[in-house]
């Protein structure tokens, strides 16, 4: 069965001009692009997106980074899209991410780890609603 997942291409990806390359990897895999937008997060949107991390030691730096410049938000769709994207991204810490994964190939530090992908069906539904209306999904 087909699932939707939310992917963010973080400010480091835009700065390093890697958006096309990362999106291309997901498309080549066979995931369908269902929605796409460029935006700059407000601190309020960042708090909504990362609400499970509020209060953690890295939270202030996380919000500062994710609001530091434009990002690209995507909804990708396909069978097991959530797990597929997580596998393609690799572990959160790029040090642990094997070559061949996105973080393994493009990132060195946890705070600038290129992409975000929803971790469950519940998170995907909640996160997609932060970025897209039903009319913006195709
Ligand atoms: P992401 O998948 O976007 O979800 C939370 C983000 O917090 C994570 O990627 C990292 O970029 C960032 N982060 C920074 N420090 C940590 C940490 N110690 N543990 C988990 N996430 C961290």
TrEMBL record:
Name the catalysed reactions. a ribonucleoside 5'-diphosphate + ATP = a ribonucleoside 5'-triphosphate + ADP; a 2'-deoxyribonucleoside 5'-diphosphate + ATP = a 2'-deoxyribonucleoside 5'-triphosphate + ADP
Q: Which InterPro entries match?
A: NDK-like_dom, NDK-like_dom_sf, Nucleoside_diP_kinase, Nucleoside_diP_kinase_AS
Q: Where in the cell is it found?
A: Cytoplasm
For this protein, the Enzyme Commission number is 2.7.4.6
Offer an example of a GO molecular function term for this protein. metal ion binding
Active site as annotated: 116 (pros-phosphohistidine intermediate)
Chain positions recorded as ATP binding sites: 10, 58, 86, 92, 103, 113
Residue intervals of the Nucleoside diphosphate kinase-like domain: 2-136
Keywords, sorted A to Z: ATP-binding, Cytoplasm, Kinase, Magnesium, Metal-binding, Nucleotide metabolism, Nucleotide-binding, Phosphoprotein, Transferase
- EC main class here is transferase
Q: Which cofactor does it need?
A: Mg(2+)
Give me the Gene Ontology terms describing cellular component: cytoplasm
- Main localization, broad class: cytoplasm
Q: Name one Pfam family in it.
A: NDK
Q: How would you summarize the oligomeric state and partners of this protein?
A: Homotetramer.
Specify the protein name: Nucleoside diphosphate kinase
């Amino acid at each position: 069965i087909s699932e939707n997942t939310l992917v963010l291409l973080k400010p480091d990806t835009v700065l390093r001009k890697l958006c096309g390359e990362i999106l291309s990897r997901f498309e080549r895999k066979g995931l369908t692009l269902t929605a796409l937008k460029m935006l700059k997060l407000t601190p309020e949107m960042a708090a909504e997106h990362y609400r499970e991390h509020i209060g953690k030691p890295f939270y202030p730096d996380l919000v500062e980074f994710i609001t530091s410049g434009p990002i690209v938000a995507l909804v990708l769709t396909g069978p097991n899209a959530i797990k597929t994207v997580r596998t393609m991204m690799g572990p959160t810490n790029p040090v642990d991410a094997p070559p061949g994964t996105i973080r393994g190939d493009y990132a060195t530090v946890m705070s600038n780890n290129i992409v975000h992908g929803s971790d469950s069906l519940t998170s995907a539904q909640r996160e997609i609603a932060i970025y897209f209306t039903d009319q913006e999904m195709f």
